[in-house]
Amino acid sequence: MRIAFLIHHAYGIGGTIRTTFNLANGLVERHPVEIVSVFRYRTKHQLFLDPRVRLRSLVDLRKKSASYMGDHPLAKRPAKVFPCEDGHYHRYSELTDERLGADLRGLDADIVIGTRPGLNMHIARQAPRRLVRIGQEHLTLNTRPTRLVLRVRRLYPRLDAITTTTEADAASYLRRLRLPGVRIQAMPNSVPDPGIPPGTLDAKHVVAVGRLAPVKRYGDLMLAFVKIRAERPDWGLRLYGGGPQKEELARLVSQLELDDAVTLMGPVTPVEPEMAKGSMLVVSSSMESFGMTIVEAMRVGLPVVSTDCPLGPGEIIEHGVDGLLVPPRDPGALADAILELIEDDGRRKRMGRAALEKGRRYDTARIVARYEAFFQELLDRKAGARGRLRGLGHQATAYGVGAWYVTKDRIKAVAAGPTRARRRRCLG
């Protein structure tokens, strides 16, 4: 199978980049794989990528590069294909529309996989029908803006399949959207063996890892540590990550007089060696579409204390066995769960051993085998005369359903009045 991934950019350390690289590294053992990065911001990628995986970019934004395209005339014009409802719309332009369309039309692959809604819609509208067209969803449907969901509902019927990271999110797609002929499949992210010894769980600090953003609710974690510090002043927190809330969280640490207990460590890669130095991972989020850091911690033998937020943690953690689940937005409950494991060394280490075993379920080889079977099923469905007729029927149905939703949404917008209609203008 010739497999191509389409990604916003491949030169950071974010979750979508990590999961794409992990999957590509596994698939390239038996298949030609390439990653097409829409943008290029750096000369070198920051995560490990097997040299057999071909990585290329469409729009070079390195100002000192001879191929810099930031001043291209089309880069100044707003995108027409990339949807305005996608949160990255401001980064796209007629230049990206042109480059993406040309690349998809000439793609030397059997399977193309998009990794965010705007790119999935490019695939739906511009990728040849000969390709198996898959849209990966790395965030949950229920957290998407309504206007984006409406666009998804109209264009995703043209895809062959959608993958989600959890069973719960797959159920949301099946329940909320009508996508005839589109296979919806839950596929967890893969996390490779970090190749380091498991943590001893003797260190007197806990670890948190993630982007310093509101959804992670690190303010709740700081409030929880006020109680932890009062009861166990010998324990501390190391928070790894960067993001927009860095200064705000630093101020909060000082205001709560936690300077001797909480350390903002900044971003680091690889993160597993730092995790292994701690005694548990803590997740305080109000939403986790999967929970990469949960599995990464389990792969080095750390138990996890996490909020039972939608949708990922509850599908990964078995409460009381390899971690503890607490209600979201409850610093007191979070503190109590952390203290449970601080006070009971034996239980913490038993949970750590169970977490190490659980983490193996997400080994890259296992997840790759699931993807290979999934890909083959989709390829077989396209193959042969019956497959071609089914494909034409799928396309006719997809365009018909999309047109019906367009008409329905426009009627609703007009009925809602001119203000509502103006707000929905980009749905046209």
Numbering strands along the chain, what is their spatial order in the largest sheet? Answer: 3-2-1-4-5-6-7
Describe the biggest sheet?
7 strands, parallel
State the end-to-end CA separation: 36 Å
Question: What pattern of helices and strands is seen along the backbone?
Answer: EHEEHEHEHEHEEHEHEHEHEHEHHHHH
What is the number of helices? 15
- Average the pLDDT over all residues and give the rounded result: 92
What is the radius of gyration?
23 Å
The number of distinct β-strands equals: 13
Content of β-strand: 15-25%
* SSE-based structural type: alpha/beta
Shape: globular
Spans of 5+ residues with little confidence (pLDDT < 50)? 419-425
Helix fraction bin: 40-55%
Structural account:
- The radius of gyration is 23 Å and the shape is globular.
- It is 42% helix and 15% strand.
- The strands form 3 sheets. The chain has a 7-stranded parallel β-sheet with strand order 3-2-1-4-5-6-7, sandwiched between helices.
- Mean pLDDT is 92; it is low at 419-425.
- The chain has helices at residues 15-27, 94-105, 117-126, 146-155, 167-176, 218-231, 246-255, 272-275, 292-298, 313-316, 331-343, 345-359, 364-382, 384-416, 418-423; strands spanning 3-9, 33-40, 54-60, 111-114, 132-136, 161-164, 183-186, 205-209, 236-240, 262-266, 281-283, 304-307, 323-326.
- The protein is an alpha/beta fold.
- Helix 1 packs across helix 13 (364-382) and helix 9 (292-298) packs across helix 12 (345-359).
- It contains 15 helices and 13 strands.
